[in-house]
Amino acid sequence: MVIYGVYIVSKSGGLIYNYDHNIPKVETEKTFGYPLDIKLQYENKKVVVVFGQRDGINVGHMLLSVNGSPVAGRTTEDGRDVFDLIEAKENYPLSLKFGRARATTNEKIVLASMFYPLFALASQLSPVPKSSGIELLTADTFKLACFQTLTGVKFIVVTEPGMAGAEAVLKRIYELYSDYALKNPFYSLEMPIRCELFDTSLHTLLELVEKSGTANL
Prior knowledge:
The structure is a single chain. The protein is of the alpha+beta class. It contains 4 helices and 12 strands; from the N terminus they run ββββββββαβαβββαα. α3 (166-182) packs antiparallel against α4. The longest helix has 21 residues, at 105-125. The protein is elongated and about 65 Å long.
């Protein structure tokens, strides 16, 4: 069992907590000849593929290294500009390593705000009144399970497609939230959750689920 991450969305649609637990690395290294047959672009402080996906390198993947030299922003470790390197014919062949970029905090906030109206839309599309909204989404590479409390707070867990028992995991996370966040006198509703005990307990829970399954929850 693999759990990729946990998200908590407030009743107003804001992301108040996220935890990346077991995000798989997706990296591909390939030697290219001149001219480079994929198009790169600098955006959001990283060099990304915008056209010409091939051999496991997809649009949206970011450039991680050039000839083994790590890339930070648009420069290599020795201070050379990435675009100057790939545009000069004499530098070829070039070994380029690409990988899937991890979502930034701002990107996660945007995703959470997008999930909120989708959840509401699913409730309205239901032919039966008082639908619970989205509880489970299944794709070829992941499964998303959602549990909404009576107060409208949504707990979301993203797992591998074959994992069973996500509902039990969500309810245990809700119990931890009640114990360590709601009972914290310094915590205010709708505000981001910053509690070390909650972080530690959540990590322990997810590790237990991955090792032993959900039967003992």
